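User: Batch of two.

Assistant: Item 1 of 2:
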Amino acid sequence: MDTRPGESGILVLVHAREETPDQVIALAVARLEAGGLKPRGLLQHGEPGCGKACATLYLDDIGMQRQVCIFEDRGSQARGCRLDTAGLTVAAGWLREAIEARPDVLFVNRFGRHEGEGRGLREEIAPAVAAGIPIVIAINRQYLRQWRAFAGETFATLPLDAGEIADWCHRAVAEVEA
């Protein structure tokens, strides 16, 4: 496992399907803010669904006090959940705004099925890399092959540990500033 920021400045948090990296990422963001860095991007959180209803899933715009729902409300009779493309479009706009603001670190929520298929937040990743902004992104292990096809092999990986994520971000920012 390569944990150095390296040339790409991308940190991938590979996780199993049953793991939810959101609280760990939120803790890492809080540590970065407490350490004087300016992270931006998206944090996911939600409420699990029950047998009769879909989960409720939101993306928060880090540092901007904005939130958007990214699951469609399909009613109580619906089976399964579906991403709300309108909500995802709003979130993509927030990421573009964040990149233009040149944060110290950009959190790009997830690289999942939609991104693997060329949709979702995929188009917002390359401009951040081109701008030299360190990126942190969570990837479910089942989408790692699609990530590698998209990004290649030049990225660091870490376990879901807020301290290690924050330390990597501080090193990545120091490399950008050097």
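Item 2 of 2:
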Amino acid sequence: MKAQYLQRMLIWLGLAMTLAAPWVSATDYYVTTNGTGSGTSWTDTHSNLIEMVALARDNDTVYVTNNATYWLTNQITVSYAITVRSWGSGGILDPTNTILSGRYPTATNRHFTLNNFGATLAGFTLTKGCENSGGSIYLQNGLVTNCIIVSNGRVELQN
């Protein structure tokens, strides 16, 4: 009887550790317009949002500081269950002051493609995104919340 109890406890413990493992290993990344570091803390920020999103894996978060415009040179594809969010004073989402610009008409790129059910984009103004199949976001799977999507377009392809 004691052996059965111990066996059950070990099974439950193993199950609990397996379920908790993804959250234990989550990494936070930090982006500012003038960052020159690795992006692993607010004191060591990186300036390239595209690179930080490319590093992120399931359950990671990419924080983007507010009061800035980030000029995107390419589309950002989010294929993992990550969160990309703005960071305002006190940690609140700040879509009014955290702007992602696709630079149209100088460039023709969409801001984001989200194709993972666990992907979240939160707290940005998305503007001047332009692509032949649509403007700012291509949402295959995921969540876009608390964003302002304005002045985006679609490019007509000419033969």
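The chain has a mean pLDDT of 85.
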